[in-house]
Amino acid sequence: MKNIVILLSGRGSNMEAIVRAAQAGQWPVRFSAVISNKADAKGLVFAQEHGIPTAVVPNRDYASREAFDAALREVIDGFSPDLVVLAGFMRILTAPFVEHYAGRILNIHPSLLPDFPGLDTHRRALDAGVAEHGATVHFVTAELDHGPAVAQARVPVLPGDTEESLRVRVLAQEHILYPHAIRLFLDGRLSHREKIT
Ligand code: GAR
After folding, report:
1. CA-based Rg of the chain, rounded to a whole angstrom?
2. Is it the case that residue 119 has pLDDT exceeding 80?
3. What residues are in contact with ligand 1 under a 6 Å CB criterion?
4. Ligand 1 center to 88 CA (angstroms)
5. What residues bind (6R)-10-formyltetrahydrofolate, as annotated (predicted)?
6. Of 100, 109, 122, 192, which residue is the catalytic one?
7. Which of 6, 141, 171, 182 to mutate to test the pocket of ligand 1 (most atoms within 8 A of CB)?
8. Which member of 9, 137, 142, 144 lies 3.0 to 4.6 Å from 95 by CB, making a disulfide possible if both were Cys?
9. What would the pLDDT profile of 144-194 be if each residue is shown by its tens digit?
10. Phi then psi for 64, rounded to 5 degrees?
C-alpha cells in the first residue's frame, strides 16, 4: 500500500479524478492526506466527504517562503508519503523543499510544456495562435514548470475558441492524464515524456 499526499489550493477537480480512478481501479494506495494552503479550498470538502484526512497550512501565516515550505514539509512528512501530488497547488516551492521530495513529487500544468510555463496558459496559447494545446504531468524540480515531463495530453485549438472553452477542453484531458500518470508511477513504469493521447 503506497501513501499519496495531495496538495491543492482550490477546486480540486484533478484530485477528485485521481481519487475516483483509484477507487474504480482498486489501486493499492492510501490517500493519506489532502493539504491546502487555503482554508476555503473547495477540494477539502470532497476529501472530507470521502474520509481523507485534511490539513491546512496557510501561507499567509508565514513570513517567508522558506518558513512556509518548512512548515508544509513537516505536515506532509507526518503522513509518510511515497508520492506527493500537486493538483492545482498554486505556490512556488523552494529548492530545499523540492529536493527533499525529488523523484516522488508530480505536478500537472495546463500547457504542453516547455510551452507556456507559469500563469494564464490558455490565454497565452490563444494569443500565440498555436494549433494544439494541452496539459503536462511532470516531476517537480526547483525551476518552476521545468521538471522532466512524463505524460502529455493534446487538444486542438479550434476556430472561435475562448480562454474558457479551451480551459474546459484541456481540463477534461487533465482528468484522464493525471490518474494515468500516477498509475504509471505506482507501477514503476514512468518514462520520460510518455504521450498517451
Ligand atoms: C488545473 O488546470 C491545473 O492544471 C492547474 O490548475 C488547475 C487546478 O484545477 N495548475 C496550474 O496551473 C499549476 N501551475 P483543479 O483544482 O480543479 O484540479
Report:
1. 16
2. yes
3. 8, 10-14, 87-88, 108-110, 135, 171, 174
4. 4
5. 65, 90-93, 107
6. 109
7. 171
8. 142
9. 898 999 999 999 999 999 999 999 999 999 999 999 999 999 999 884 443
10. -140, 160
Q: Taking residues 33-47, report their average pLDDT.
A: 98
Can you read off the three cell numbers belonging to residue 11?
A: 477546486
pLDDT given at position 193: 43
CA-nearest residue, atom 9 of ligand 1: 88
Determine if residue 65 is labeled as part of a ligand binding site. yes
- The verdict on ipTM greater than 0.95 is yes
Q: Let me know: does 101 contact 77? Beta carbons within 8 Å.
A: no
The pTM for the full model equals 0.95
- Domain 106-197: which CATH number of 3.40.50.170, 3.40.190.10, 1.10.287.3510, 1.10.150.110: 3.40.50.170
How confident is the model over 52-84, as pLDDT tens digits?
A: 999 999 999 999 999 999 999 999 999 999 999
Sheet strand arrangement including 105-109: 54-56, 29-36, 2-8, 83-86, 105-109, 132-139, 149-156, 194-195
